[in-house]
Amino acid sequence: MTQTPSPLAPPLADIVVSTPADLPAPVALGEIERPALFLDFDGTLVSIVDHPDDVAIAQGLPGLLTALSNALDGRLAIVTGRSIAALEGLVGPLQIAVAGSHGGEFRPVAGSAVQPLAKPIAADVVRAVETFARNAGGLLVEPKPFSVAVHYRHHPEARDALLEHAHALAHDNGLGFKHGKNVVELTMPGSDKGAAVNQFMALPAFAGAHPVFLGDDVTDEDAFRAILPFHGCAVLVGAMRATAATHRLPDVAAVHSWLEAGLNAGPAAKENLA
Predict the structure, then answer these.
(1) Phi and psi for 34 in degrees, rounded to 5?
(2) Which residue, of 10, 75, 91, 117, is most buried by count of CB atoms within 10 Å of its CB?
(3) Residue 122: pLDDT above 70?
(4) How confident is the model at residue 229 (pLDDT cuts 50, 70, 90)?
(5) Are 99 and 106 in contact (CB under 8 A)?
(6) Residues of CATH 3.30.70.1020 domain(s) within the chain?
(7) Is 160 one of the annotated active-site residues of the chain?
(8) Contact 274, 35 (CB under 8 A)
(9) Which residue is catalytic, options 40, 42, 216, 222?
(10) What is the pLDDT of residue 271?
């Protein structure tokens, strides 16, 4: 079932990205009637580190996400730039819905088969990126099923040349271009966090829900825009910047506290979650 955006919400073209002095914190999860919760991973549930394989996973995080998903009748999903396989390689098998590779792969129910929403990225594009990265001093290349990312955190001097090279590759190969926190990523058409959110919102389990998306990076802006027509709550995690978000939390620790408070809400608030 496809959910029709609320007539009270602005059309996507009218959503303005701005930089207010600050944004308010989101209301408690239990105060949102029938919420659907979408969570970015890096920078939102875990802190960003130098190497993507070195993130520290809070011991109680997988259990917290499973418990919240159960309280929400399955209306919780991680929407991440990582592949689903890479994500579960870090946190173990997840008992929740997941969209990976910026929405290039989609698993609507825990245990179900992963559905590709994009075509695999061409091997020659990956090779071109790897050659550039090697010649630029050894930038970290992260191949994924539907994209390839290049991290330049330790080589900031390579930023401008990398951006120029990546733009050219994207143009020549019909690829998407994403510039995040010290990372550039080339993505296949269909790899879009906003499209992933819309895929979830079209499912019967999510019908009539009020979506809440938490994310930290500019790569989450597509998702912020996607939920606003549903009268959703877009939560920027981290420092204030130009954004389509409506609310803000300061850091990963604040996200965990907000999630835990939602799970531990009183009986009246828990009725809202179901």
Answers:
(1) 45, 65
(2) 75
(3) yes
(4) very high
(5) yes
(6) 123-187
(7) no
(8) no
(9) 40
(10) 66
